[in-house]
């Protein structure tokens, strides 16, 4: 199994003017590519923080983080994002385009792909996530669940090798959750694994090969199911 992430003795504190949150003193773990790993733990245990560290969005005070064997200190956010797709806990923050279609086509246009190819890929991904009928809508005005699916679509259209999803089911109804489940199953068949941060036990039970539990910045449990 290929190693997607390796965290080695990572230390991280948030510092703002009022307080210091000591999140991780010394945390180490590996994540492997062709399995589904669930990251669980109480509110404030550091789940979102660890995913942001893994994506290079925030930097460790000490220790090292590797993505597919490369130290992220030597990588740009773009280089990390090209390999690993990241769904934010509040996905509206990652939506910026003026239409649902453009939200997906934008990056491909920058990369210089031809229009026909872009149209095929964008339409296919929008259909996969049940968003095609909204392709001309403004992302800002979509419902919470539609925004979440659009954020996921904009990640999938760029064909990442691995996915990190922070609370992906929170705004989804049963039907949409089923769509997401099917996508995760399909990706896994293509050997694209996922790290799922979640409080949704049913969802975790259905998908996870491995469950890592965080509590107060430490791993208190790490089991294969
Ligand atoms: N930008 C920030 N500045 C200071 N402290 C922060 C910041 N972001 C998070 N924290 C603190 O760090 C701790 C861990 O937060 P984090 O968001 O990683 O938790 P979480 O496990 O994802 O929680 P949840 O289940 O609620 O999403 C919390 O105590 C939180 O208050
Ligand atoms: Mg969180």
**Overall morphology:** globular
CATH-level-4 superfamily name: P-loop containing nucleotide triphosphate hydrolases
Instruction: Quickly count the helices.
Output: 7
Return the string of H and E elements: EEEHEEHEHHHEHEHEE
Helix/strand/pairing class, anyone? alpha/beta
β-strand number: 10
Largest sheet: 6 strands, mixed
Mean pLDDT: 94
The main sheet orders its strands as 6-7-8-3-9-10
* Small molecules in complex: adenosine-5'-triphosphate, magnesium ion
Rounded radius of gyration (Å): 17 Å
CATH architecture: 3-Layer(aba) Sandwich
At the fold tier of CATH, the topology name is: Rossmann fold
The helical percent reads: 25-40%
CATH class: Alpha Beta
Sequence stretches where pLDDT stays below 50 over 5 or more residues: none
State the domain count: 1
Would you mind describing this structure in some detail?
With 225 residues, the protein is of the alpha/beta class. It is 34% helix and 29% strand. The strands form two sheets. A six-stranded mixed β-sheet has the order 6-7-8-3-9-10, sandwiched between helices. A four-stranded antiparallel β-sheet has the order 2-1-4-5, covered by helices on one side. The longest helix is centred in the C-terminal third of the chain and has 16 residues, at 174-189. The model has no long low-confidence stretch (mean pLDDT 94). Bound molecules: adenosine-5'-triphosphate (ATP) and magnesium ion.
């Amino acid at each position: 199994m290929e190693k997607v992430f390796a965290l080695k003795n990572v230390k991280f504190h948030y510092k703002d003017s009022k307080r210091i949150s000591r999140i991780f003193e010394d945390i180490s773990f590996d994540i492997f590519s062709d399995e589904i790993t669930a990251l669980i733990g109480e509110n404030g245990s550091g789940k979102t923080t660890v995913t942001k560290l893994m994506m290079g969005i925030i930097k460790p005070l000490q220790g090292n983080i590797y993505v597919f064997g490369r130290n992220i200190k030597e990588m740009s956010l773009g280089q990390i994002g090209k390999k690993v797709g990241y769904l934010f806990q509040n996905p509206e923050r990652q939506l910026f385009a003026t239409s649902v279609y453009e939200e997906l086509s934008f990056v491909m246009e920058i990369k210089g792909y031809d229009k026909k190819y872009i149209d095929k890929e964008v339409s296919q991904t929008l259909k996969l996530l049940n968003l095609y009928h909204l392709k001309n809508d403004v992302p800002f005005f979509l419902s919470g669940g539609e925004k979440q699916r659009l954020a996921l679509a904009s990640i999938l259209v760029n064909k990442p090798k691995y996915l990190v999803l922070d609370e992906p089911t929170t705004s989804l109804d049963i039907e949409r959750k089923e769509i997401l489940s099917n996508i995760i199953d399909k990706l896994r068949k293509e050997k694209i694994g996922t790290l799922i941060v979640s409080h949704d036990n049913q969802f975790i039970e259905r998908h996870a090969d491995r469950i890592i539990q965080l509590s107060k910045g430490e791993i208190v449990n790490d089991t294969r199911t």
